[in-house]
Specification:
Blueprint (H helix, E strand, L loop, with lengths): L2 H15 L23 H12 L5 H18 L3 H26 L2 H14 L2
Helix pairs in contact: 3-4
Length: 122
Amino acid sequence: MDILAKIAEQRIREAMERGEFDNLPFHGKPIKLDDLVGVPEHLRMGYKVLKNAGVLPEEMQLKKEIVSLKDLLDACYDETEKQTLQQKMNEKMLRYNMMMEKQLHKPTYQKYHAKILKKLGS
């Protein structure tokens, strides 16, 4: 443990002894933790920060836009408008697929993928 961690731990203990944490909201109640079990450990903090900021990872934003475009396409009757929407959807799908293809070749993804397959018994 480095010196900063030791100092922080000591100050937390001192504050606990003084009772500074006794009147906090939700004191004594279980903390609802985000379910990040499916996210690799080294990515969890980043996902948490993005979630707290209300930002989706780029691949999730693209998926969301693709779903929206598909819904618009299903409800559209104008052929010109349909072609425009289809073009936009094709571009988003291509970009998404390219992003996912890059992920497949990263060592962290391959390691994570192997762990998933192992857990599934494949």
